[in-house]
Design goal:
Strand content: over 45%
Shape: globular
Number of strands: 18
Helix content: under 10%
Length: 297
Amino acid sequence: MNFHPSRSTRAGIVAAVLLATAATPAQALEFTAGDYEQLPGGMNIGLLYLQHADRTHLYANGNKIANNFKLTSDVALLRYIRTIQLNDTTTFDANLIVPMARLRTSGAASVLGDASGVGDIVTGGAFKFLLDPNTRDVFSIAPFLTLPTGQYNRADPLSIGENRWKLLVQMVYIKHFGSDWALDLGADATHFGNNTHVGPSSATMKTKMRFETQAHLRYNVTPATTLSVGIGHINGAENKIAGISSNDEQSTTYGRLTAAHFIDKTTQLQVQLGRDLSTHNGPAERIRVNFRLMKLF
């Protein structure tokens, strides 16, 4: 399939790609099964995330418009969590996330070039409320603020930083079914600040609210090993550049398979495989591989 976008089409494509990849450095905010379990106060948690994703098809309004649109992302994130006991049933997990990423393109996507560098720092945390001391069911609400600290160049179609503030609020409910099974349900909403330096003319990009829902069913194979299957959906986040709509509202459904294992009492390894199941606008993920190392201290 030949792909020769006009200038206006290219602007819409860039907006769609930015939206699909800008969240990449903050993929740690896409929680996995067990992330919102309540831990005692006074704990320190260090996490290293390594993420790789390949995209080969580009969609617009549900139609595939390029099948050689190759966009690869490699991301490393350092995350620190400090748990704070607020009362007998409530804790607060303070978070700091520092991302680094590399975006590479080829095929039809090569018009966008490549990008690498440090991403936008994310700070915030999760209030966790223990609903039942016997079942350990938990409800959490977590606000996260993304700071415009990452590397950004308005002249480049792709940048690691977004050059704008973002506020995400995530809510998660965990229901346990005995000692072996649990269901994690979550939803979040993201409000975007404006990027006032887009392209050579320093146009303003405005983005509507973005919404995401997730569900993970997990099974404790042993006290140290957990398997889970999950599904999620993203919608909203249509962009306007210089007052012109890009018609790039997101509607993406994805699947996840996750395995986690404690190799000792304080060290956990987690591996996750995923892919997009359907994509309405932007590049579709053909495969995603996430690796996470967690250390409690």
